[in-house]
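Sharing a chain and its predicted structure for anyone who wants a worked example. Both blocks are below, sequence first, tokens second.
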Amino acid sequence: MAFLKTILIILLVYYLLKILARWFGPKLFSYAAKKTEERFRENFGGYANQHRNEEEHMGDVIIDKKPAKKYSESKKVGEYIEFEELD
């Protein structure tokens, strides 16, 4: 009899969670989407303001120089061996 009660309780909890997920799932999802959107706007809001400042200074010429590259001599790894095909 205890086994039957345990199975009924498990089924009851399963269906109760299923019903609650249907009721509160969309609300929970929309809440999470709103919070994600707010964080996105906070993180990337500075980029939009920076872009606007660049538009205000339109016509200014800014030259950024790249650092000089140091080219090193290529190291010889070994000898070159030419192979011939045999028929």
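Comments welcome. The radius of gyration is 34 Å.
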